[in-house]
Structure formats: structure tokens, C-alpha cells
Amino acid sequence: MTPVVRLPDLAIFQIGDAAPHSHLFIAAGHPGDGEPPFDLAADDLPGLRAMLADSGVECSPIEHSEITGHDSFSFVDPEGNRIGVVTPHHSMPAA
Asked: Which CATH number does the domain housing residue 60 bear?
């Protein structure tokens, strides 16, 4: 895991060295506020969502944020935790 961004309220790590890259986003927040405590990033967001949904995983619709420019969805893991998935920052410089 390689650090990409380190800020007081946000850390982003690249997972793996081979393309397509996956990223782990960890942001400050309040547990239980309804938002996932971290986000994963995926190059093929629609493909990942379709694969999860076809496997019976509960997924939200894909939404687009005008603020960040990212598309995202969330899913529920077997333990009942909500996990967010977003499109990655392809042009981010390494930390």
C-alpha cells in the first residue's frame, strides 16, 4: 500500500502496483452518521457494482457528485457495514 495523499482529515492509499489501481480513502467523520467510514476506489465502477449486485450484494445506485466530480455507490458487506466505492483520482501525484 502506497500513500498518495496525507491531509489532516483525509488519507488516500494506492493498493497494489499493477493497473488497474485500487485506492483506499480514509476520511475523518463520525461513526454512525450513515456515511461509510472509508471509501474504496475502482476504475470500472459500473462493472464492480454490477458484479456485486449480480452476486446478491445490496448496492446503492451510482451517483455523480458535482462537487468532487466523482461517481460513487455503496454496498453492504456480510457484517452489515456500508462500504463506499468511488472513481479514482487518476492524476494525483504520489505523496
From this structure: 3.10.180
